[in-house]
Amino acid sequence: MRNFLRPAEFGQIEQFLHGLRRMARQRARYNAVQMAPKSTAPAVTQPFKTIVLLREQQIAEQFCDAFQQRYLPEHLFYWLPSSVQAWVDLCRSSEYKNASRALEVLNLASPVLAQQLFHICTLCGLGCGEGSKDRVLLEQFASSGKRLNYVAADFSQPLLELAAAQVDGIARTSLGCKLDIFDDGHLDATVSLAQSLGGPVLCSVLGNTLGAFDPDKFPRRLRTYMRDHGRFLFDGEIFSEQTLDGYNNPTNRRFALGPLTGVGISEEDGKLEFSITRAGDGLFAVTKHFIATRDLRVHVGSNSIEIQSGEKLRMSSSIKYLNESALLSFVEAAGFMIDSRWRSHDGQFVLACSAPS
User: Fold this and answer.
1) Which terminal CB of the chain, N or C, has fewer other CB atoms within 10 Å?
2) Rounded Cα–Cα distance for residues 150 and 55 (Å)
3) What are the two backbone dihedrals, phi and then psi, of residue 254, each rounded to the nearest 5 degrees?
4) How many whole angstroms separate alpha carbon 291 and alpha carbon 58?
5) CA quadruple 355, 142, 179, 214: dihedral positive or negative?
6) Where are the beta strands (DSSP E) in the chain?
7) If you ran DSSP here, which 8-state letter would residue 148 be given?
8) From the CB of residue 115, how many other CB atoms can be counted at a distance below 10 Å?
9) Which secondary structure element, helix H or strand E, spans residue 165, and what is its range?
10) Residue 198 clears pLDDT 50, i.e. is over it
11) How far is CA 234 from CA 128, 174, 206, 213, in A?
12) Kind of pairing between the strands at 149-154 and 231-237
């Protein structure tokens, strides 16, 4: 499989996007995740096209390998229907402070960004999730008189479809890109795709997602593919003594158990534990793992995997920053200049916009 798109293919995509406005209204359905009626996103009324760089079979193989190696990486928490539903529930939960803080600072920043970045033509949401954060930006740009193209990029097809529902009628055009963010070819193809739509691109990595992408390496990788007039918008959670309290709650525990629930493991089968550890200069990590309290047999695809009582299934950590300077330093060291920044009212969440320097 190719990890890049030919120039001719970019032209075909542009033609498709241009034709969206003339095509008949069509409703897209995603039945695996039942959204709460009072907050259901509007049905997608535009056709939504997804460029697939990462195939489902590849994900299934990664999922099986993860259980065999007893380590579940970040992206696998957004694949199975049980995980997607748990994530949607978590984003709506008052217990999940990251979601509310991320939206708080975005609502503060978006009017300023829409004025300062009026030259931007496309928003490329890298790790867009269900699209709620990118929606804030798209709404503000639209109300300021400029509807942006939207490229929603994520590992999860269900989340891409939910993101499309979030921005329908707000974005000028929308296109999904299903990718492995850690693959340089995929990242190059996605950013190039956004740039091919014409005009400068605002790349967003929101919801403390930069930590999941590797705050030391990812900004350097992204800088390689960005053009001079583009912008990089990112955020992060500042570590405090209350950080762990935001994780050890029922809603977050359901999310952490999502991949396990998908193969038949419940909290009755073991213990889910959270802890804090240092993760390098200026970084902390909220770590989590599941310890089986009885012998288990799980079926992943055609594979049967035995997990003995007392075995530990490690899970991806959530990265936090010692302070604002620590967060910004990773991006500045990658060749970006910080244009502007905002903090949540409690000082525990920072949003910043940067330009290639």
Assistant:
1) N
2) 22
3) -65, -40
4) 27
5) positive
6) 49-52, 71-72, 122-126, 149-154, 173-178, 201-205, 231-237, 270-278, 283-292, 296-300, 303-307, 312-321, 336-343, 349-356
7) P
8) 11
9) helix 157-167
10) yes
11) 12, 21, 5, 12
12) unpaired
CA–CA separation, 132 vs 152, rounded Å?
Answer: 11
Q: In 218-304, where does DSSP find H-type helix?
A: 218-225, 250-256, 258-261
Residue 120 has pLDDT above 70, yes or no: yes
Location of structure tokens 């996103």: 41
Residue 116 near residue 65 (C-beta atoms within 8 A): no
Do 53 and 179 meet the contact criterion of CB atoms below 8 Å apart?
A: yes
pLDDT digits (tens, 9 = 90+) for 173-185: 999 999 999 999 9
Q: Rounded distance, CA 54 to CA 323, Å?
A: 35
State the Rg of the chain over Cα: 20
The single-letter code of the amino acid at 343 is: R
User: CA-to-CA distance for 98 and 92, rounded, in angstroms?
Assistant: 11
Rounded Cα–Cα distance for residues 65 and 69 (Å) = 6
Between CA 137 and CA 331 the distance in angstroms is 21
Give the confidence band of 45 by pLDDT, cuts at 50, 70, 90.
Answer: low
Q: Which residues of 314-347 are buried (b: 16+ CB within 10 A; e: fewer)?
A: ebbbbbbbeebebbbbbbbebebeeeebbbbeee
User: How would you label 278-293 residue by residue, b for 16+ Cβ within 10 Å and e otherwise?
Assistant: ebeebbbbbbbbbebe
**Superfamily designation of domain 29-263+331-357:** Vaccinia Virus protein VP39 (3.40.50.150)
Q: Go through 152-162 and write b for each residue having 16 or more CB atoms within 10 A of its CB, e for each that does not.
A: bbbbbbbbbbb
Q: Where are the domains of the chain?
A: 29-263+331-357
Contact 182, 73 (CB under 8 A): no
